[in-house]
Amino acid sequence: xxxxxxxxxxxxxxxxxxxxxxxxxxxxxxxxxxxxxxxxxxxxxxxxxxxxxxxxxxxxxxxxxxxxxxxxxxxxxxxxxxxxxxxxxxxxxxxxxxxxxxxxxxxxxxxxxxxxxxxxxxxxxxxxxxxxxxxxxxxxxxxxxxxxxxxxxxxxxxxxxxxxxxxxxxxxxxxxxxxxxxxxxxxxxxxxxxxxxxxxxxxx
Length: 204
Hints:
alpha/beta; Maf protein
């Protein structure tokens, strides 16, 4: 089965390829199909939950391409901040510009909010929800992945993207920013959700 992965994020695309292609799944991204970014996509992520956002994206791209498609929505949830940034993780600081500029602004906002907080107040989790639609009329299939850790007081390492340099993984005992791609994939929220998706598809 060839699947459309409904994301334009270079970081997510790399993770998806690393996890799913070795399992024998053929993955395409919107640009591969000549489906270039449209202003309509900016309106897709306005649901109140990760699942709602992922479902809206999957529905949009299935309707546009006719291909089986899956989409994810994911983010960082800090317990002491009431689950923020949550579904606003990508746009939390309101920054515009390159992915690197947006990530830097979001990380700075997170550090500002947690300034002076003790370790127990810095507990957090990454969460990813995937929604698969095999056709436009199919029942949505949901897969989820979670990984636990805490927020560091300063960025550590240069790997990954998003909040990775600030997220100290319980599983790895170091920041995702210090982990190799393979190490992160083995325990990350997206890696776990993608393997759950592959299991639904009979690939594992």
